[in-house]
Write a structure and sequence with these properties.
About 60% of the residues lie in helices and about 5% in strands. By secondary structure, it is mainly α.
């Protein structure tokens, strides 16, 4: 599934100007595999990219993926940020970089890396690797400075055009000068009815010149139209600018190091060093003057929130702001008004939707706030970051407490939204003396999220780092040990997982924590199950279920004991007992509105029913399982259930849907690099489904299977549930890739290679290569043959 909106800010204002630059971005992306947009802070790089992305999306068969890096501070997290943006759920246990390379190997995708400068070396290394080891991936980056990667093409984004001093303005100056158009648009937002007129246009032109055409500076000034006239704005800003020019000496430690980019996006922190600081440059001083003036015009409460909220990485909601920013000198009621005031002044940007409001700062605004926070004392920043950590810990513990209940889809959404804050909390714990135990505790309470959503790469990353750094025998370590074991078991690695879960059990016993001892049963039995020792696995789970739940024990892990014992029993042919166990805990799930564990119970129940020959019940329960898997985003469980439904269809003589679902499951396994024999009960299901479907369809099996391979996971689930009558692709036996098929259809329209290149926004040589491969794969010698083939394929859709 294309995650085009991951990390993409909600646009809260219109896009003004940049028509030529947008066209140039499209042209460069078509011609070059790496394009970097550079330019001074506040010039609009991010906004330009976000404006161009929808116009680029149709040119990439596998989508455009936006990776916001402003909230990433640790260079080692760059690959993880890409993995999340690409929605990769990989269980292979390989390094994050290798996961990315293999996932993107044969894909035609555009990766948009926004705000690279503070991570320039890490971004450059990763981009160079991806470009070298993939065939069709392209990268569009925004950065204060070009990435150090060979063969990149750099487009320097210039400020918006302003009139030359003394130059007569044309009859409609907004049409000629984007800077004036931007000011008028933003001023009208705060002063309804405002427009450029003969009476004010000279003053607006002078103001935009004073602001050097920088979009962010223009926006900050335009907000003041609520209280001031244009001429007053110009006079006050001019005084502020002269004062700053007199005081800045190139070493000012409160320069608000500018990394902003655009009117609705961030652009990282300043990449210059002490020998070449940009705070002495005119455009930087211009932006500094605008930000400084905005700060002076804030209320005391707004300044306090600005400073304290500057420690947030990425976006945050009002609840987080209350916990981190309220305190001495600012109560919670005052905070709400201050947040609203900062939004009104364009110092906080509102993201999210009408139901879930979130806020974020442009990077220069955030850095300015950090400078102000540090003025409060050497430990002010550390104390604020500790409050962020405390909020994350409270938030994650609350999510875990609520997890066994009806809120699982909402909790998954919230946890994804807070990923930048949680990562910053982990970094704080790893880099601040005395905070490792809190970091271990935070990681241990996130086991359910990483496990349920398949975010195993990230889970392992944090758990392994924290366990290596904090060897002391604590309850937090015991939990982190078995949590890491669960990540490893999900990746099929029982060899590493087994000793970890035993170490967790021994430590919990030594510390006298019965809940943590109980938590280890799932991992202990799972290690036996994956290793093929079914009798030992059954004994472990039966022992676990012979004990009542302990105080503090996770009900989800209690449920998994039922799931896995039922699983073992079903493998061994004890179907009735397996079904009884499933039904027993299903009632508990239903009473609590729980969906995740319930879905696993339904899959085991459907498997046992299928094995006993009750096809109707198996179909009903497998479909119900799929609905729950979709709700909580369980990718791997979706793959297994699709195969089970394929087996049901096959036994009912429905060969085509069986083949399509097998292909759809195969795509999930390929994307996740799952070993297909990792789930012992599943081999017979898949084998029978495929054998029967092949017998039913004969030569038609391949085309139906290939149709399933083309389905994204959400489309496959919709097809399996009968919510769509056909899969994404028509049944047509084709050796071509999706992009080659699209090119063949353009050939059928009579387009030349150059026209195809223009239509798809690719280089001419790329289009020529596609045509050559099409002719070779289809065994044709002319374009006309390919055109006839494409028309015949198209006819199968009608």
């Amino acid at each position: 599934m294309t995650r085009q909106n991951i990390g993409q800010p909600v646009r809260t204002s219109s896009f003004v100007g940049r028509r030529q630059e947008t066209a140039e971005v499209k042209r460069l992306v078509a011609a070059h595999r790496l394009v970097s947009l550079t330019g001074t802070g506040g010039v609009g790089k991010t906004r330009l990219v976000l404006h161009a992305v929808p116009r680029l999306a149709r040119s990439f068969a596998d989508g455009v993926h936006i990776v916001q890096l402003a909230g990433v501070r640790d260079a080692s997290l760059v690959p993880l940020a890409l993995i999340e943006a690409l929605n990769i759920r990989d269980v292979s246990g390989r390094s994050p970089v290798r996961v990315l390379v293999d996932h993107l190997q044969d894909r035609e995708s555009l990766l948009v890396l926004d705000n690279c400068e503070h991570l320039a070396d890490a971004c450059a290394r990763l981009v160079e690797t991806l470009l070298a080891e993939t065939a069709a991936v392209r990268v569009l980056a925004t950065s204060r400075h070009p990435l150090d990667v060979p063969a990149q093409h750099v487009l320097e984004v210039q400020p918006l055009a302003t009139p030359t001093p003394g130059e007569p303005l044309p009859p409609k100056p907004a049409l000629e000068y984007p800077a004036l158009a931007l000011f008028a648009d933003r001023a009208a937002a705060v002063l309804p009815g405002f427009s450029l007129t003969a009476a004010n246009q000279d003053a607006v032109a002078a103001l935009c010149r004073r602001l050097d055409g920088l979009p962010l500076a223009i926006e900050l000034a335009a907000v003041r139209m609520r209280a001031l006239g244009v001429q007053q704005l110009l006079e006050r800003l001019d005084r502020r600018y002269r004062l700053l020019a007199d005081t800045v000496d190139g070493t000012d430690g409160t320069d608000g190091t500018d990394g902003t980019d655009g009117t609705d996006g961030t652009d990282g922190t300043d990449g210059t060093d002490g020998a070449g600081r940009e705070d002495t440059l005119p455009r930087h001083r211009t932006l500094r003057a605008a930000v400084d003036w905005s700060h002076d015009l804030c209320t005391r409460e707004e300044r306090t929130v600005w400073a304290r909220a500057s420690v947030f990485a990425g976006s945050f909601d009002l609840g987080a702001a209350e916990e981190v920013c309220a305190g001495p000198g600012l109560d919670r009621d005052e905070l709400v008004d201050a947040v609203a005031g900062l939004v009104d002044k364009s110092l906080l940007l509102r993201d999210g939707d009408a139901v879930h409001a979130r806020y974020r700062m442009l990077e220069s605004i955030r850095q300015y706030g950090l400078d102000r926070l540090r003025e409060d004392g050497a430990h002010a920043e550390e104390a604020a970051r500790r409050r962020v950590r405390d909020w994350c810990l409270d938030f994650v513990e609350e999510c875990e407490r609520r997890w066994f209940g009806p809120d699982q889809p909402e909790l998954v959404r919230r946890l994804h939204a807070e990923s930048d804050l949680i990562r910053s909390a982990f970094e704080f714990c790893l880099n601040t003396p005395g905070e490792l135990r809190a970091g271990l505790k935070l990681a241990g309470h996130l086991w359910f999220f990483w496990f349920a959503t398949g975010a195993l790469v990230e889970g392992r990353y944090w758990l392994e780092r924290l366990l290596a750094a904090a060897p002391e025998p604590t309850v937090a370590r015991a939990r982190a040990l078995w949590a890491l074991a669960l990540m490893l078991l999900s990746q099929g690695n029982a060899v590493r997982a087994a000793p970890l879960v035993e170490e967790a059990r021994e430590l919990a016993l030594r510390l006298g924590d019965e809940a943590e001892v109980a938590h280890t049963f799932f991992g202990r039995g799972g290690a036996c199950l994956i290793s093929g020792d079914y009798e030992r696995a059954k004994a472990v789970y039966e022992e676990a279920l012979s004990r009542p739940p302990r105080a503090g024990e996770s009900m989800s892990l209690v449920g998994f004991k039922y799931v896995e014992l039922a699983h073992v029993l079903a493998i061994q042919g004890e179907y009735d007992r397996a079904m009884a166990l499933c039904e027993e805990f299903r009632q508990i799930c239903l009473a609590h509105g729980e969906q995740w564990i319930h879905s696993y119970l339904l899959r085991i129940l459907a498997f046992a029913e299928w094995a006993k020959g009750d096809q109707m019940s198996a179909r009903v329960h497998a479909r119900e399982c799929l609905r729950l898997k979709r709700a909580v985003g369980d990718v791997f469980g979706t793959g297994m259930t699709l195969e089970l439904l394929a087996a049901v269809h096959a036994r009912d003589g429905e060969g085509r849907p069986a083949a399509v679902l097998l292909g759809a499951a195969k795509r999930i396994w390929q994307d996740a690099h799952v070993a297909l024999d990792r789930t012992p009960s599943h081999g017979p299901v898949r084998t029978e489904a495929e054998d029967v479907a092949r017998a039913l369809l004969g030569d038609g099996f391949k085309s139906a299977y290939r149709e399933g391979l083309e389905l994204a996971s959400d489309h496959a689930v919709a097809y399996a549930l009968g919510e769509r009558e056909s899969a994404a692709r028509p049944v047509f036996d084709s050796p071509l890739t999706r992009r080659e098929t699209e090119v063949a259809e353009l050939i059928a329209e009579g387009l030349t290679n150059q026209q195809i290149a223009d239509r798809l926004v690719v280089a001419l040589r790329t289009a020529e290569g596609h045509v050559e491969r099409i002719l070779s794969k289809l065994g044709f010698t002319s374009r006309s043959q390919a055109a006839v083939w494409a028309e015949a394929r198209r006819a199968t859709r009608t």
